Amino acid sequence: MTDSTDSEKEAGTSKWKWLIGLIAIIGVFVALKFLIPKEWWEGLQSWIEGLGPWGPIIFILIYIVAAVALVPCSALTVVAGFVFGVVWGTVWVSIGSVLGAAASFLIGRHFVRDWVEKKTADNKNFQAVDKAIETGAFKIVTLIRLSPLFPFNLLNYFFGVTKVRFWTYVLGSWIGMLPGTIMYVYIGHLGGLAADSGNETTDTAKTWLYVAGFVATVIVTVIVTRSAKKALNAQTDVDAGKP
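^ that's the sequence the OP posted. Answer follows.
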């Protein structure tokens, strides 16, 4: 009876998280369209483009520092979509997020292990993952990165105090973070198109094509993350000895 009640509560919480996430996505899009001056975006884009080949490098370095400093990186991911477009934005964010995750992992493993262990000691999700890693590190890392249950930046440090190998962690993190990266980059790119919608040269058909692509990306991301969450829960239940 208790397990059934817990499952119902978890399902309800999950629905609220998705609803909040959808509202947040709409909020970001509205902000890009109406609240942030077009001149600000144009200035940001001109500044980065003015850096030439150093633009992506500086962006990646900023992303790494933000990840290590436990600063939420979703805003940077959105900015990448606006400045670099969907394809290159995804490339640069992927590099920055993986390098930032790798740096935090190494810091957690070699320098701040005690602090990380104290931060995660009372979190049941983290403790379940710690046990599950022993049975399939790559699968668990990938599933967790796909799941929205865990905070991205703190998770980087947490993995550093587990038994997962560095390169297993890096590859699993890259694969698991990719769907979310594409979605947030898409938001930024659509925001850029919306902010520029008053320009007569804007191709309406192309804009709607991107919108359709974004909707498809969100649907796929939701399906993948929900499936990952179920698989992760099943795996951690097995490792915890639950029927």
